[in-house]
C-alpha cells in the first residue's frame, strides 16, 4: 500500500512534517538542518540556476547526510521538488539527476506526473504530488503516486483556495490507501498535530521556514514576514498566471495598484517583469505570517516544533483521559 511506504519514511522522523520546497528560499543548508533534527527537508530543483548547480546541491546533500549519520544522528529523509510539466525545459535533465542520486522522496508539482512516477518508484523512492482539489488528486492517484500534497487555501506560493477541512474530506473520499500531506498556514507543532487529527499523514510547512537563518530569502522578505498578518496576504492569479498569495507591502513597493489587481482577470499578468524577478521583488507568503515573529536557526525552529507537537499531543491525551474519567 503506497501509504505504508510513506509511513516507513516517517519512522525516521521526530515529527510528521516536511519543510516545503520554496523557490529562492530553500537550499541544502536549510534542508540538512531540518533533516538533522528529524523533520523532512526539501528544495526545488528549479531553485538552482543550472543543471551543474543542481548537481552541486545534490552532492552537498549526500555529503551532509553522511556527516549527520557519521555524527551518530538518524536524519529524516530529504526530498526534491520537480516541476513535471512540458513547459519546464529542465524537467528531463533534472529527473535524470534525481534518479542518479536516488533522492529518497520526490515532490512533483504542476501538470500530470504520468511516467515520472514509474521512474521514481524504479529507484525505490516515494512520490508525492501537489494537488488543490479532488480532481487533481484523482489524476495523481491514477498516475500511481504514493500520496498527495493537499494545498489548501492560505498557503504560501502557488496556493489552493479550498478550506483545509473541506479539501481533506474530499480527498479522503478517494480512499485511505494513499498518504495525504496537508499544506497551508501551518506554523506550529500544534498545527501539525491538528493536521493529523484531520486525517493527514504529514504537514507541509513553507512560510514558517522563510524566517530562518539558513533560508536564502532576501532580508527584506524575512523582515516583511515578521511585520505582516494574514490580512496583509493578497491572493491573485494576475502576477504570474496561477493563484498565489503575495505580501501586500511588496506589491505596493513594486508599484502595483491593488484596485487594478483586483479587477484583472487571471492570467493577465500585471507585473510585467520576467518570472524570476517577479518572485524576487514581490514576496509570497501564506496566511501563517501573523504567527511568525523571529528568525531562528532552522535546527532551533525544528526543535521548537517537535516540543510543541509533543506538548499538544500530551495535552490532548490528558483532555481525553479527563473526559473518560468524567
Ligand atoms: C516563497 C515560496 C516559494 C515557493 N516555491 C515553491 C516551489 O518552488 N515549488 C513548490 O512545489 N512549492 C513552492 N511553494 C509552496 C510550498 O511548497 C508550500 O506548498 C506552501 O509554502 C505551504 O503553505 P505555507 O507557506 O502556508 O506553509 C512556495 C512557497 C513559498 C512561500
Topology:
Elements: H1 2-10, E1 17-19, H2 28-36, E2 41-44, H3 51-70, E3 78-83, H4 91-100, E4 105-109, H5 114-122, E5 126-131, H6 134-142, E6 147-151, E7 157-158, H7 164-172, E8 179-183, H8 189-197, E9 202-205, H9 207-210, H10 219-226, E10 233-236, E11 244-247, H11 248-253, H12 258-262, H13 275-281, H14 298-325
Parallel strand pairs: 1-9, 2-3, 3-4, 4-5, 5-6, 6-8, 8-9
Antiparallel strand pairs: 7-11, 10-11
The structure holds flavin mononucleotide.
Structure report:
This protein has helices at 2-10, 28-36, 51-70, 91-100, 114-122, 134-142, 164-172, 189-197, 207-210, 219-226, 248-253, 258-262, 275-281, 298-325; strands at residues 17-19, 41-44, 78-83, 105-109, 126-131, 147-151, 157-158, 179-183, 202-205, 233-236, 244-247. The protein is globular. The chain has two domains: 2-217 and 297-325, TIM Barrel, CATH 3.20.20.70; 227-281, no CATH class. β2, α3 (51-70) and β3 (78-83) form a beta-alpha-beta unit. The longest helix has 28 residues, at 298-325. It is built from 14 helices and eleven strands. By secondary structure, the chain is α/β, with parallel strands linked by helices. The mean pLDDT is 94. The N and C termini lie far apart (39 Å). The strands form two sheets. It has an eight-stranded parallel sheet. It has a three-stranded antiparallel sheet with strand order 7-11-10. Flavin mononucleotide (FMN) binds next to β9 and α9. It comes from Reyranella aquatilis. Keywords: Flavoprotein, FMN, Monooxygenase, Oxidoreductase.
Amino acid at each position: 500500500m503506497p501509504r505504508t511506504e510513506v509511513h516507513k519514511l516517517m519512522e525516521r522522523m521526530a515529527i510528521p512534517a516536511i519543510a516545503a520546497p520554496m523557490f529562492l528560499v530553500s537550499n541544502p543548508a536549510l534542508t540538512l538542518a531540518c533533516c538533522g533534527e528529524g523533520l523532512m527537508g526539501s528544495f526545488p530543483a528549479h531553485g538552482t540556476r543550472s543543471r551543474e548547480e543542481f548537481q552541486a546541491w545534490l552532492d552537498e546533500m549526500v555529503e551532509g547526510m553522511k556527516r549527520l549519520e557519521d555524527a551518530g544522528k538518524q536524519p529524516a529523509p530529504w526530498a526534491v521538488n520537480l516541476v513535471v510539466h512540458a513547459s519546464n525545459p529542465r524537467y528531463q535533465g533534472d529527473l535524470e539527476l534525481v534518479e542518479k542520486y536516488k533522492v529518497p522522496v520526490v515532490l512533483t508539482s504542476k501538470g500530470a506526473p504520468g511516467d515520472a512516477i514509474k521512474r521514481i518508484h524504479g529507484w525505490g523512492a516515494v512520490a508525492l504530488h501537489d494537488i488543490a482539489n479532488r480532481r487533481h488528486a484523482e489524476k495523481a492517484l491514477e498516475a500511481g503516486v504514493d500520496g498527495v500534497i493537499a494545498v489548501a487555501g492560505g498557503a504560501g506560493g502557488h496556493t489552493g483556495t479550498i478550506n483545509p477541512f473541506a479539501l481533506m474530506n474530499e480527498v479522503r473520499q478517494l480512499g485511505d490507501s494513499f498518504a495525504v500531506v496537508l499544506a497551508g498556514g501551518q506554523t506550529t507543532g500544534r498545527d501539525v498535530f491538528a493536521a493529523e487529527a484531520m486525517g493527514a499523514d504529514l504537514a507541509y510547512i513553507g512560510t514558517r521556514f522563510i524566517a530562518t537563518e539558513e533560508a536564502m530569502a532576501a532580508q527584506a522578505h524575512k523582515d516583511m514576514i515578521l511585520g505582516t498578518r494574514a490580512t496583509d496576504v493578497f491572493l491573485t492569479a494576475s502576477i504570474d498566471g496561477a493563484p498565489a498569495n503575495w505580501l501586500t507591502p511588496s506589491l505596493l513597493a513594486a508599484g502595483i495598484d491593488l484596485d487594478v489587481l483586483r479587477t484583472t482577470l487571471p492570467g493577465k499578468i500585471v507585473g510585467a517583469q520576467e518570472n524570476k524577478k517577479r518572485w524576487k521583488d514581490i514576496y509570497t507568503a501564506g496566511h501563517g505570517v501573523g504567527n511568525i515573529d523571529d528568525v531562528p536557526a532552522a535546527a532551533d525552529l525544528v526543535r521548537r516544533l517537535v516540543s510543541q507537537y509533543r506538548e499538544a499531543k500530551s495535552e490532548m491525551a490528558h483532555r481525553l483521559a479527563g473526559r473518560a474519567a468524567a
